[in-house]
Amino acid sequence: MSIVERFPRIRDRSTPSWITDAADDDSDLVEVARRSLLDAVHELSPQAGYPYQLDLRLVGEATRNGRLPTDAMVIANRFQQEVREALVGSELRDIQLDWCGISEGSAVLHLMPRPHAAAENDELDLAGIDHFEAAVAHVLAVHDRLEGDEPDAAFGGERGALLDRVRQMADSLSEQALALEVTAHGSQGKIYSSTLSQRGQRRAHELFSKVLRETKNERVTGLIVSADIEARAITIRSAKHRGKVEVLDIPQQLIADGELRAGVEADVIVELVTDSDRAGRQRSSRRSWIGYPGEQTALDV
Q1: Whole-angstrom Cα Rg for the chain
Q2: Exposed site from 71, 108, 176, 254, fewest CB < 10 Å?
């Protein structure tokens, strides 16, 4: 008796599109096997999924022969912080990654997400694991973009807090002369991977650490809503700036004499100093008093 005769349901099965449409990039017989097994299991249990697992491989002289310096433990925490920032707005924002083993092969840290709340089988629910998996994929994509040749501005759309966490990860790896290779085994059989080598670490430092300073003069008009003689500062509600603008380094006498006081309309020239990084993220800005419009000529439009 043939296999088809013994198992008639095989006649109705077709080859999954993710096999026939896949690019020939050797992206893992392991992934194909995992997803194929899950397809079979889904016939009996449509909600079934693999436990989500993360493998963080640390590559460097310090981790040869499976050694793991205690200083390297911070890398797992750095990765957890990256994922948390990618989960901003989700109830999983404070998710905890737990150690579940260490293997040789350089040194490989095995991590699993801890359930956000009590759950059956001690696992995240399907919605939770989907959010978590998307966040991990996002972080790994940022790592890979640092390894590639994308322009600096390509990172401008990322949240500043996430990029700061990525920079901290890169700095921690650089301090210990380690490269990071991450493999994430998804709940539905998909495997994600990324690398953050010395190349990517250097680029993260250059993009997100070095500050570019721009200075220009601008005109600020509007109603003064507060004046602080000790701080030598006034706050102006400006329609042009769509909100309140703080101006510093005001001559104290102008505030003491009531020339610049709350409730008075102001028309002043200030020096605007803006600090940003190469990715285009504004890190800080400061406006300082120069004078009244008629007292200076170098006004930047």
Answers
A1: 28
A2: 71
